[in-house]
Amino acid sequence: MKVILYMAATVNGYIAREDGETPWSKEEWQNFSKMVKSARNLVIGRKTYEAMKENDEFSKIGNPFMVIVSSKSLGPGVTTVGSPKEALRMLKKEKYETALVAGGGKLNSSFLKEKLVDEIYLDIEPLIFGKGIRLFSEDDLDAKLELLGTKSISQNTVQLHYAVLK
Known about the structure:
By secondary structure, this protein is an alpha/beta fold. The chain contains four helices and ten strands. The protein has a single domain, classed as 3-Layer(aba) Sandwich (Dihydrofolate Reductase, subunit A). The strands form three sheets. A five-stranded mixed β-sheet has the order 6-1-7-10-9, sandwiched between helices. Strands 3-4-5 form a three-stranded parallel β-sheet. The protein has a two-stranded antiparallel ribbon with strand order 2-8. The longest helix has 14 residues, at 26-39. The mean pLDDT is 94.
C-alpha cells in the first residue's frame, strides 16, 4: 500500500494556528479535495477530525472513508484505531491501494517515525504564523527526501512533491 502524507503549511512550517484554524486558500482546498477524492480515504488524528467535523468539511471533500488514529473512541460510526499500523491494516482490509494521511503534527510524526510514509505532498501557503501546530511534532525524526516535482497551485501557493527515501 502506498502511503501519502498530504499537508498545507505556512512558509515557516505550521499546519494550523494554535486554535486549530487553517486559513488556507480556496485553491489549496480544491487541490486537497481532489487528492482525497482520488484516494477515497483519509487518515487523521482526533483533533483534526474534531476540527473538520465542526466545520462540516467532510462533505466538501467527498465524504471519504475515514480512519481516526486516537487512543479515545469517538463513538458509533467513527472508525478509530490506536496506531498508524492499525490504520493501514484497516485500509488494506477495505481494499484501498493508497492511504492518504492528513495530520495533525503528532500523527504526521508517528507515520514518519515508523517509516510508513512513501510520498509527501506539501502545499506551501503564503502565510507565516508566530505560533501554531507544526507540520511534525517535536520528536526524534530523521528522513531523507527526494524532490519529485513542484507545481503552482495559484499565483501565491506552491506544491512540493517528495519521495521519502527508505
